[in-house]
Design goal:
alpha+beta, 3 helices, Factor Xa Inhibitor, 64 residues, 3 strands, three-stranded antiparallel sheet, elongated
């Protein structure tokens, strides 16, 4: 069998921590930023741990 290729879209969107958790950027920071409060924008700007059910699929796409 040939080597499995890493999914290009997945490698751009997710990163793996040292402990093996998958981190993602939270949605909601692309548009309409003038109506959102500063507190909300700061919260949305931070990375978030991916849910375990989704992490299983992403790990497969990343070849982990």
């Amino acid at each position: 069998m040939p080597k499995m290729k890493t999914h290009s879209g997945t490698k751009k969107r997710f990163k793996v921590t040292g402990s093996g958790k998958i981190m993602k950027q939270q949605a909601g920071m692309r548009h309409n930023l003038e109506v959102k409060s500063g507190q909300r924008k700061r919260r949305l700007n931070s990375d978030q741990v991916l849910a375990p059910a989704d992490a299983k699929v992403v790990k497969k796409l990343l070849g982990l």
